[in-house]
Structures are given as C-alpha cells and as structure tokens.
C-alpha cells in the first residue's frame, strides 16, 4: 500500500494568519516544505485539493509543488470548468474528482458519478487525453463503481468517511461495504484507493481491505505532526500501513 499525504491542512494553518498574503516574507508554514518532508519520510505521493472557494490550498501552491517536488502529485478537484482548466495546465500525475459544496467543512460523501455521467464524460476524456490518470472519489457502491469504469476512469478512491465515523457493529458493516466495493472495482480492472477519516487507529481495519493500492490521508497526519513533527507522523503511518 502506498501513502499519499494530503497537505491541505498545512495550508489551512497558513491561511489562518496569511490569507491574501501567502508570499509575505514571514508567511508560514510552507506547503512545499511539507510536501518535501512527507516525500523524504516515505510518502509516495502528495495530495492537494484546490477548492473553488480557495479556503486552504491556493493556485500558486499547486504549481510550486508541481515544479519543486519530484513525487506523484494527486490533484483533487471538483468538476468545474475553472478547475478543469487549471488541472490541464498543471498536469498532475493523477486527478481525483470529488464532489464540492461550499457549505461543507470537508468533502461529505462520494461523487454521484452514476447521476452525473454527462457532466463528467468530457472531463475524464480530456484528462485521459492529456495523460493524467483519473480517479473518482465515490461511495463503495456498485452503481458508482460501474459508472466510473464506463466513463474511463483508471481508479476509484473509496470514501472511508462513514466507516471512520461509525463504531462497533456499524463500523464492521461499513468495513464490509468497503471490502465488497474493493473486490468489485478490482474485478473491473480499476485501481482501488481509499481515503477520508483514516487515522492511526482505524488503519488496522483498513489494512484488511483487499486490493488497496493507495491511501490518501490528511487530517490525522497533520494533527499528529503538531505534536511529533511531520517527518515522524508520516513515518509512523507508513509503519502502521505495513
Ligand atoms: N481523499 C479525498 C478525495 C478527500 O477529499 C480527502 C479530504 O480532503 C482525503 C482523502 C483526506 O481525508 P482526511 O483529511 O480525512 O484524511
């Protein structure tokens, strides 16, 4: 299993003080440094979500990371014309198409690929034509997995948020849903990734899901990094993944 570190919340911390002034000589923390430290600690990718409202990661951040950090870049994006254009200019290794709603605190629920095929078809085709691998951030649901496959996505990222928020039997049921989704997606030839709400505790259960290739983890790693430093936080997660 590979780890993509989502560094959005490094930018959240910077925006808390330097919104509108990220190039100030004293602006911190530096998201490029966060990407480099994560990579040196063993992460195989860096994940950033350029939201329509630019609440954390900014346009300049993604281009700087692309230019200066030689690791796989996974660009999370809503399917809006503005962000699609940026992705095509940025040329990340991968895009993960996510639902976006300005009122949400974080990405709530998966993308309704089955219900939005028409709107997604040309975006997937344009990314594929540009050599950018496409992932769909979806619930572990057969209809969503099938639709992602039919649209030409190479990967799905199964949303683990409901699993992370559940406890006891309910969590086992959610885990079963993720397992079944992973088996079905793999049977269609899709790469299976997972993300959202994965932490240092529930990783033990996530590890039991078959066929997982990449986990994208942000909040828990950045939280731990506040106390241990980012290098140690990334290394500890990788050790638990293994
Ligand atoms: N994957 C996707 C598609 C996401 O939208 C997010 C949250 O931005 C994550 C992974 C990371 O989730 P978390 O911050 O809860 O680890």
Key terms for this structure?
242 residues, alpha/beta, TIM Barrel, 8-stranded parallel barrel, 8 strands, globular, binds pyridoxine-5'-phosphate
What does the model show?
- With about 240 residues, this protein is an alpha/beta fold.
- It has a domain at about 1-135 and about 205-240: Alpha-Beta Barrel (TIM Barrel), CATH 3.20.20.70.
- The protein is built from 11 helices and 8 strands.
- Helix 5 (about 115-130) links the parallel strand 4 and strand 5.
- The longest helix has 20 residues, at about 170-185.
- The chain is globular.
- The mean pLDDT is about 95.
- Bound molecules: pyridoxine-5'-phosphate (PXP).
- Pyridoxine-5'-phosphate binds near residues 98, 107, 197 and 216.
- Pyridoxine-5'-phosphate (PXP) binds near residues 76 and 106.
Secondary-structure topology with pairs:
Elements: E1 2-6, H1 8-18, H2 31-40, E2 45-49, H3 59-68, E3 72-77, H4 81-90, E4 94-97, H5 117-129, E5 133-138, H6 142-151, E6 155-159, H7 161-165, H8 168-187, E7 191-195, H9 203-206, E8 212-217, H10 219-228, H11 230-241
Parallel strand pairs: 1-2, 1-8, 2-3, 3-4, 4-5, 5-6, 6-7, 7-8
Helix pairs in contact: 10-11
Bound molecules: pyridoxine-5'-phosphate.
């Amino acid at each position: 299993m590979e780890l993509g570190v989502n560094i959005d919340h490094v930018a959240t911390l910077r925006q808390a003080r330097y919104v509108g002034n990220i190039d100030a000589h004293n602006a911190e923390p530096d998201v490029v440094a966060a990407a480099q430290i994560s990579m040196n600690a063993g992460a195989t990718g860096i994940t950033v979500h350029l939201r329509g409202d630019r609440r954390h990661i900014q346009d300049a951040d993604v281009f700087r990371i692309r230019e200066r950090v030689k690791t796989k870049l996974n660009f999370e994006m809503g399917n809006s014309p503005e962000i699609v254009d940026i992705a095509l200019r940025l040329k990340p290794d991968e895009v993960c198409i996510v639902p976006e709603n300005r009122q949400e605190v974080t990405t709530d629920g998966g993308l309704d690929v089955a219900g939005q095929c028409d709107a997604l078809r040309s975006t997937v085709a344009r990314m594929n034509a540009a050599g950018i691998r496409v992932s769909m951030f979806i619930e572990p649901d057969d209809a969503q997995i099938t639709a992602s496959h039919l649209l030409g996505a190479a990967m799905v990222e199964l949303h683990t948020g409901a699993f992370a928020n559940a406890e006891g039997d309910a969590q086992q049921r959610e885990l079963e849903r993720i397992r079944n989704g992973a088996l079905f997606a793999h049977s269609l030839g899709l790469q299976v990734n997972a993300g959202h709400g994965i932490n240092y505790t529930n990783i033990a259960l996530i590890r039991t899901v078959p066929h997982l290739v990449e986990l994208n983890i942000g909040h828990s790693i950045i939280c731990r990094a506040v106390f241990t430093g980012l290098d140690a936080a990334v290394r500890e997660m990788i050790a638990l993944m293994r």
